[in-house]
Amino acid sequence: MLPEALWRQQPLNELYEGDTLYSEGFIHCTGERQLLVRVANNFYRDNAEPFVILCIDEDLVVADVQWDTVGFLQFPHIYGPLNLDAVVEVIRFPRLPDGQFVMPPEWESEDIVQ
Predict the structure, then answer these.
(1) Using CA atoms, how far apart are residues 4 and 32, in angstroms rounded to an integer?
(2) CA–CA separation, 102 and 97 (whole Å)
(3) Is 62 in contact with 27 (CB distance < 8 Å)?
(4) Residue 102 and residue 86: Cα distance in Å, rounded?
(5) How many CA atoms are closer than 13 Å to the CA of 108, on its beta-carbon side?
(6) Residue 107: what pLDDT?
(7) Which residue segments constitute the domains of the chain, with CATH numbers given?
(8) Alpha-carbon gap, residue 56 to 88, rounded angstroms
(9) Is 51 exposed, middle or buried (0-12, 13-18, 19+ CB in 10 A)?
(10) What is the value of pTM for the model shown?
């Protein structure tokens, strides 16, 4: 997930580096939809900007992807810039009036095993 304004500024012919690739060495991701909503509310609820979700096909990512354990949870981290052809869908991240992020409606209606 990232602010929609940043995504709109991203040149489509360049690699996406995110805001943590150089400071932490990887791009943060989540592998579970419900976990993404939790992370968003824990870290970005007070940021009033509109956000989007990048849906990434891990098999298309050129950089190294590692599933790292943080606490008791596993998170996919991309250890390099993200090639944009691995982004298979971009979804607006809906919010309630109080700023809380909620599951996108298109995810609630899908019967997909994660």
Answers:
(1) 21
(2) 11
(3) no
(4) 24
(5) 7
(6) 84
(7) 2-94 (3.20.170.20)
(8) 6
(9) buried
(10) 0.89
